[in-house]
Design goal:
CATH class of one domain: Mainly Alpha
Number of strands: 2
Helix content: 25-40%
CATH superfamily of one domain: Cytochrome c-like domain
Distance between the termini: 53 Å
Radius of gyration: 25 Å
Number of helices: 7
CATH topology of one domain: Cytochrome Bc1 Complex, Chain D, domain 2
Oligomer: single chain
CATH architecture of one domain: Orthogonal Bundle
Largest sheet: 2 strands, antiparallel
Strand order of the largest sheet: 1-2
Amino acid sequence: MPMLSCLALCAAILLPVPLLAQTSQFGQPIAPTDLTPWDISVGPEGAGLPSGRGTAAEGEAIYAAKCQMCHGEKGVGGPNDALAGGMGSLAPGKTPMKTVGSYWPYATTLFDYIRRAMPFPETKSLTSDEVYAVSAYILSLNGIIRANDVLDAQSLPEVRMPNRGGFIPFPRNPK
């Protein structure tokens, strides 16, 4: 009898295996057009930057309306991270202050971060022009660009951040 019970148990366990190999019947295949709103990454080189433009002068009003409550007037003094100041604070023997001006290595990734994650809690609500303008305003607060400099897909990758050389490249070995 134990042998018969063992065979019955094995059959009960192994019979459903072919059924598990079938594909799921939930949902539907995703179309490339469904992915487009989420495929918005912009890397250090600027690949993927959208059309649009903005200046710091234009970005000041947008910042005041949508960013200042979290990051403070002129990028300091808010409840969340400071965005301005801290230049030279990453040197040995100094108290580090990580801001866009002191720490951030690429202006393009600043744009990317604002575009996908700000303003909280209305992420991805800014137009491309607004993101260029807010990026320009933050860069201007840090003295990296002038208030009337135009940022767009061509000029943004050319912005040289003060801490661009402050990171050690991590070689990746894709397989």
